[in-house]
Amino acid sequence: MSLLLAASTQRTIGWVLALLVTVPVLFLMVRRAFVIFAKADPEVGSEVELAPNRLPAVPDEFLEGTRLDRSLGAGLVTLALIGVLLPLYWLGEPGRIDGAEANWDRIFTDRGGESYEENCTSCHGPGGTAGNATFTLTDASGNFVSQVAWAAPALNTILTRFSEDEVRHVLNFGRNGVMPAWGGPGGGPMTEQQVNNLIVWMRSIQLDEDKIQANVRDGATERKAALLFEGDRDAMSDAEIADETARSMAAAEDFMAEVDAMLAPLEAEAEETLAARIAGVERLPEGETRDRELAKIDGQIESFVAADLLEEGFADQETLIGWGEILFSNRADSGVYGCARCHTAGFSYQAVELARTVDGNPVIDEYDQGGGAFGPSLTDGATVTRFIEPGQQQSFITIGSQTGVSYGSTGRSAGGSGQMPGFGARSEGGNDYNALLTQPEIAAIVAYERSL
Ligand code: HEC
Ligand code: HEC
Fold first, then answer.
1. Could you tell me if residue 380 is inside a domain?
2. SS3 371
3. Within 6 Å (CB) of ligand 1, which residues are found?
4. What is the mean pLDDT of residues 114-125?
5. Residues 216, 199 share a domain
6. Quick count: other Cβ atoms within 10 Å of Cβ 333?
C-alpha cells in the first residue's frame, strides 16, 4: 500500500510542484520579453519620460499598504506551500526506500542471471538445473585415458547445503580441477561484486522443501531400480532393456513401500508420545504461530524416529541400510542429494558405466562406495572411530563442517574445511536452512556408513 501510495502521490506532487514553479516563471519571462520587445525601438526622446529619478515618487499609503500586504501575502503562501509539501514528501519516503531496495535486489539478481547464462550454463544447465562438464581423464603418468562427462551439480539447492561464504569459496577457488576458479583469490577473472551477483541470483532459484523432498525420493527410487537392474545392457535388445527397466522400477517402488512400512509404527509411536502437545497446538487459532508450533512438533517426531532407527539392535537393519545406500548414492540432479559424488572416486563421471564402453582402460570395474575422493574415506569403520556415538555422526551430517572447527569424538586436529555440506534443517550464523534430507533419511545414511 505504502509503495502504491508513494508511486502515485509521488508523481502527482512532482507535477504540481513543477507546474507551480514553471507556470509563473514562464509567464514572467513572456511578459518581460514582451515588454522588452515592445520597447525595443523606443521613440526618440521617450527615455526622458522614463528616467527613474524623474518619475513621481510612490506614495507611502501604497508602499505601506497594498504593496506590503501583497509581499507579506506571497510570503505566507510560500510558507504554507512548504509546510504542506515537505510532510507530504516525507510521507512517501518509506515507499521510496522499499522501491529502491526491491530494485536493488532485482538489478543484482538480473546481473547474476546474465553472468550465469554466459559463464556457467554450458556445465550447470539452464537455470542451474544440473548438467555435465567435459573432462579429460589421464592416468598416473599423465597419458590420455578418456574424455568423460563429469556431473555438474544443480545449483537450485546450493544455499540449503552451504552458507553463502562456503559457496563463495567454491566460486573463488573452483574444485577438483573440473569446476574452474572464477574469483580473484583463486586467479579467476571475476571481481568480488560479480561473484556476489551470482550468489544473489542463486538465492532467487532455490527450491522449496516439498520439491526437494520429492526429488530426493524419486532419485532414491531410481537409484534402487538401477541397482536391481539385471543383465548386461550391451547384450540386450531394446525391448529386453525396456522390460527389465519396468521390472526393476516396480521392485524399487516395492522397496520404498517397505521403507514406509518400517517408519510408520515409529512415527505413530512418536505422535502418541507427543499427543498432548499436538492437541494443545491444534487448539490454537489458525495462523503463523500455530504453523510454527506444528512445524516444531514435526521436527521433534523426525528426531524421535531417527533416534529409534539408530538404537542399538534396531530390528530392520536390512531395509534401513539398503535405504541408506540409495540415499548415499542418489544420482538425481547430478548427485546433489547424495554423498557419493564427493566420497566415491569416479562416481561423478560414471567410471563403472564407462568401463563397459572404453576398452583397455584403467577406469574402475566397481565403485568403492565411500572409499574417498574429494571427501575422506568412510570405509573400514572410519566413521565408527570418528564418531563414537551414532548421534554425533547424525548431527555432523545435519550441520556439515565449518571452517577450522573440529568435529567428532576423535576430532580432526586441523578442523573442517567448510566443504562438507549440511544436509539437515538447522540454524547457523543467524540463518535458517531448510532440510535437504529429513532426520530419518540421515539416520539411514549413518547406519549405512557405519556398516562400510
Ligand atoms: C567447465 C564446467 C563448469 C563451469 C563452466 C562451471 N562449473 Fe561449477 N562446477 C562444475 C563441476 C563439474 C562441479 C562439481 C565438482 C565436483 O564434483 O567436485 C562444479 C561445482 C560447482 C559448485 C559447488 C556445487 C556443490 O553442490 O558442491 C558451485 C556453487 C558452482 N559449481 C557454481 C558455478 C558457477 C556460478 C559457475 C559460473 C560462473 C560455474 N560453476 C561454472 C563445472 C563447471
Ligand atoms: C561437496 C562434497 C561433499 C559431499 C556432497 C558430501 N561430503 Fe562428506 N565430507 C566432505 C569433505 C570435504 C569432508 C571432510 C571435512 C572437511 O573438510 O570439512 C567430509 C567429511 C565427512 C565425514 C567425516 C569423515 C571423517 O572421517 O572426517 C562424514 C561422516 C561425511 N562427510 C559424510 C557425508 C554424507 C553422509 C554425505 C551425504 C549425505 C556427504 N558426506 C556428502 C565433502 C562432501
1. yes
2. coil
3. 119-120, 122-124, 133, 150, 152-153, 155, 158, 167, 170-171, 175-176, 178-180, 182, 198, 336, 341, 348, 374
4. 95
5. no
6. 24
